[in-house]
Amino acid sequence: MNDRALDLLRSTFGHPGFRGEQAEIVDCLLRGDDALVLMPTGGGKSLCYQLPALLREGCGIVVSPLIALMQDQVDALLQLGVRAACLNSTLDAATAADVERRLLAGDLDLLYVAPERLLTGRCLDLLDRAPIALFAIDEAHCVSQWGHDFRPEYRQLTVLHERWPEVPRIALTATADAPTRREIAERLALEEARTFVSSFDRPNIRYRVVQKDGSGARALLNFLGDRRGESGIVYALSRKRVDTLADQLATAGIKALPYHAGLPGETRAANQRRFLQEDGVVMVATIAFGMGIDKPDVRFVTHVDLPKSIEGYYQETGRAGRDGAPAEAWMSYGLGDVVNLRQMIGQGDAPEERKQLELRKLDALLGYCESTRCRRQALLDWFGESHAGACGNCDNCLEPPQTWDATDAARKALSCVYRTGQRFGAGHVIDVLRGVSTEKTQRFGHESLSTWAIGADLDARQWSGVFRQLVAFGLLEADVERHNALRLTTQAGPVLRGEQRLAMRRELPRSGRKDRRGAA
Ligand code: ADP
Ligand code: ZN
């Protein structure tokens, strides 16, 4: 290993040694080669380009989509004595001119630039006249059209390679699934680059998935109740949900703040600052929050609504426990989430091909949620990495879920959906199965159906678990145009005909609250 690099790591950054593959990555750039780095959040990506930028002649140009965080990154570097600056739309003309002057004078070690700024003719000309040590493309997955962080400007970054073929490039991301990886290499012309894939395992994070009743606020409050004074993030699907939940948590005496793209810029900045600086702040946020946030002691990340994909989920949960101390990734999900997300995907205006891909991603996530195997093994599998043995630090390892043969129950549920005309949501079908007389069961004459009361052996909660899993497994689908009416899919056939058996996860008894309709 290069001694100068190690000296600098110690003297400037104050770290005793390299972590993981940092040393090899630094070496690669010092030799002038390109690198593609896949490392989980908190893994230490920044050093991989900061050190070589300091050691090579000229200034390291860092392309980052996160204007809001650039200044923080620059401030942190300035504190270490590194000559860093940024160029983005928030700077006034005089400041920008000064940064440009320093770059040309060779007075900068690192320059952070927003992609849209970098791609301007003016900026490219500026770089032509400056000594450049390397190009670092941070959050490189933004080049992927299929990811939720897609930035069209990232596609044009191949100009770096074309214009400065001799300057080494390093692309970094914490999103590591194989398709995204391939897309990054291809779109950024990094096919020849050395690829560094770190282990994505985050052994200190405990994964947990619970079933939710209603909005999930109650379960969340229980979870947070045991964690007073700890910092954490609560992810919710929509801005409205964020506002409502933040209010609910604040009313319950939790130091909760909202964050989403619909809030004024000052509010967002102020809330982010409090989250970073104060102890025990719970940020209730959409996924607009978190990319690039470096807060080591986030003790938990919760999803009260189903995230959109396993990659998104893993990246978001990766913000917990960067300091290596125990942290939790907690998610609650229910039938409503599946229906909502399918609806959002179905009604979006993305091209058909993309919708299909998103639905497959959602299915993979549902498979993860309903899985009875070790969560860590399931997650790492997804990223093409294997984990020897069960982890002992996830809900499925700690409290092994019971499964039951749900073939009969599934057949009853499916035929009841069919008999009631595939026009009703799960609530009503469950009433019919359990023989709970309501205005609706009477009005539609459902009390005389052959499936009336054939499911009195299970309570409403157990049935709702059956329906959730039937939707998750793709045997039933909900029609959002018609109040989430359930209908059978072709996959329901074999189960209905008794040709296929079905095992399901047993629902855990709800703690401390009686079922809405009482026991059967
Ligand atoms: P990433 O960008 O991959 O999410 P960062 O570069 O922000 O990660 O690093 C995460 C944390 O790990 C930071 O607090 C950083 O100071 C620390 N870190 C990085 N490399 C090392 C190292 N070699 N030794 C100790 N701490 C490190
Ligand atoms: Zn496990």
Automatic annotation (TrEMBL):
Swiss-Prot/TrEMBL cofactor(s): Zn(2+); Mg(2+)
Family of the protein in this entry: Belongs to the helicase family. RecQ subfamily.
Enzyme class: isomerase
Residue ranges of domain Helicase ATP-binding in the record: 26-194
InterPro entries, alphabetized: DEAD/DEAH_box_helicase_dom, DNA_helicase_ATP-dep_RecQ, DNA_helicase_ATP-dep_RecQ_bac, Helicase_ATP-bd, Helicase_C-like, HRDC-like_sf, HRDC_dom, HRDC_dom_sf
Domain Helicase C-terminal intervals: 216-363
Highest taxon of source: Bacteria
EC number annotated for this UniProt entry: 5.6.2.4
NCBIfam families assigned: recQ, recQ_fam
Protein name: DNA helicase RecQ
Keyword Iron: no
Record's catalysed reaction(s): Couples ATP hydrolysis with the unwinding of duplex DNA by translocating in the 3'-5' direction
Keywords: ATP-binding, DNA damage, DNA recombination, DNA repair, DNA-binding, Helicase, Hydrolase, Isomerase, Metal-binding, Nucleotide-binding, Zinc
GO molecular function: DNA helicase activity; hydrolase activity
